[in-house]
Amino acid sequence: MFHQPTSHQPSSSPTRVLTLADYGWDSERERSFTLSRAAGLVPGRVVRAERGLCDVVAETGPVRAAVVPGGGDRLTPCTGDWVAVRPGTEASSATVVEVLERRTAVVRSTASRDSQGQVLAANVDTVAVTVSLAGPLRHGRIERMLALAWKSGAMPVVVLTKADRSADAASAAAEVAAVAPGVEVLITSAATGEGLDVLDAVLSGTVVLLGPSGAGKSTLGNRLLGEDRLATGAVRDGDGKGRHTTAWRELLPLPHGGVLLDTPGLRGVGLHDADEGLDQAFAEITELAQGCRFADCAHATEPGCAVLAAVEDGLLTRRRLDSYHRLQRENTHAASRTDARLRAELERPKKQGARLRRAIKQSPNFKA
């Protein structure tokens, strides 16, 4: 156990004893750690990760632990990970020996062609997708974030921020709810306190705030923490974008239980192996597809397509279907980076087209 001032008490007040349970350690993880304890290792949770080093909260207190390079995913800690730590001695520093199995993980694709995906947050219970009401709503971005959230295995919640700057927050919430089936949509304002009690009741366990710079994540996080722990910045009037005031991902205990994982604003979120996430983010399309004539219907031009029929009948918007197709293509392309067979299937139409064009040009009847 170790001591840390609670976020709602002044520094002169008595400190509250924090344990690993405050950070999410439970009996199931304790049972699975039996052999590691016998080997002299101790459990801990990564509150901040850097290249080659990470800050860990362990039973004995905060630990600055080194990470052995070249260990692959088994030794690549991310904020939120539970790890096995070999305690330091007079002759050596503390070392992360292993990253324990992740129950959930928020993973995005990266620009690298050999990428296996970048873990943004590990062992998350609630993903709060933050959307600012101070500017126009971007449906495609919300759908993309929700697909990422659903894929993680955590429970997504859409948090509409800056309601005090919206002309009609209720209408905006209804608009967002239409593109977020099965997800609770909450209206909040850190400036006025609107909706924060409800939000505090909805969020549980380890909570990660996801959204672009300027969405109000850090301001919202400070209200949840009860003090200004997270840096905030102004948003440009011209395009509503903000600066990255959060420079790294960090895990912080909440005063009423659970922990908050603050993240830098996300400029781009590429999907990675997000088939299940897309099915849930576009649940109405997934349900409609059950009525298609063909099991492998692409909902493009096929006869007997129940999804296209819903668009014709006004039950599904064309924009919503186009967004679904766009994200599906992106997800498939990302998967092809590491799947040679899938990559070959995607390139086959291009090669067939190239062969056809060459054949036409070589034809004796061809005229340039």
From TrEMBL:
Compartments annotated for it: namely: Cytoplasm
BP GO terms, sorted: ribosomal small subunit biogenesis
Domain named EngC GTPase: residues: 122-267
Q: Where does GTP bind?
A: 161-164, 211-219
Q: Which cofactor does it need?
A: Zn(2+)
* Biased composition range(s): Basic and acidic residues: 330-350
Under Enzyme Commission nomenclature, its number is 3.6.1.-
The enzyme's first-digit EC class, named in words, is hydrolase
Q: Where is the composition biased (Basic residues)?
A: 351-360
Pfam families for this protein: RsgA_GTPase
* Positions that bind Zn(2+): 292, 297, 299, 305
Q: Name the Gene Ontology molecular function terms of this record.
A: GTP binding; GTPase activity; metal ion binding; rRNA binding
Q: How is the cofactor bound here? A: Binds 1 zinc ion per subunit.
Ranges for domain CP-type G: 114-269
Give the span(s) annotated as Disordered: 330-368
Q: Which CDD domains match?
A: YjeQ_EngC
Q: Which family does it belong to?
A: Belongs to the TRAFAC class YlqF/YawG GTPase family. RsgA subfamily.
Q: What's this chain's function?
A: One of several proteins that assist in the late maturation steps of the functional core of the 30S ribosomal subunit. Helps release RbfA from mature subunits. May play a role in the assembly of ribosomal proteins into the subunit. Circularly permuted GTPase that catalyzes slow GTP hydrolysis, GTPase activity is stimulated by the 30S ribosomal subunit.
Query: What name has this protein been given in UniProt?
Result: Small ribosomal subunit biogenesis GTPase RsgA
Q: What organism is recorded for this protein?
A: Actinocorallia herbida
Q: Which gene encodes it?
A: rsgA
